[in-house]
Amino acid sequence: MEFLDAMQHRFACKRYDENREVSEAQLKMILEYGRLTPTSFGLELWSFHVVRSAEKKKALFHACFDQESVATSAFTVAVMARKAAFANPDGDLVHSRGNRFPDPLNVFIDDYRPYYDYLKQEGRLDCWLKSQGYLAIANMMTGAALMGVQSCAIEGFHEQQVLDVLSLDGNQWQASLLATFGYPAEAERPKIRERLEDLVVFH
Known about the structure:
The protein contains nine helices and four strands; from the N terminus they run H-H-E-H-H-E-H-H-H-E-H-E-H. By secondary structure, it is α+β, with helices and mostly antiparallel strands. The radius of gyration is 19 Å and the shape is globular. Helix 1 packs across helix 7 (125-146).
């Protein structure tokens, strides 16, 4: 299936076929689409949590306000983002990420620091880190559709409960976005979108 076809036929699946598993190879590929997603300054201050055990899925189902998509999915991916303290340009995590690039670390930090300072001053660090998870989820969802696997983005959740399900410390992590995956047990719904000419402004 071509990319545009995948976009046309992907829909927000609310109920999956619980008797049909997504293969390990497909799961790995979906996660690879997430891993290859760009992040600001290449920092990758995130992690991907795959929830597929019956016990964890049930707990996550309740954390997501009892959405059927979570309960019936083959698995749910929760993209978790680091909290603002981990984005500090003088911190160990930023240094370890910066050291991966060809230029010396001080060049990376000198480039990164002004933007970090701006976001910190504006109180937007947590939002900046969290929003990048949306890119990863979008790539996972479209990539899954290329394999015939449907998905649904889950933005409705109780964050502390999600952290509890994943055994994560809220001082270190925040929930960015979740997405369910599986083979649908419902008919594909038609794509409803505004016309391109009504959305695009050329300057």
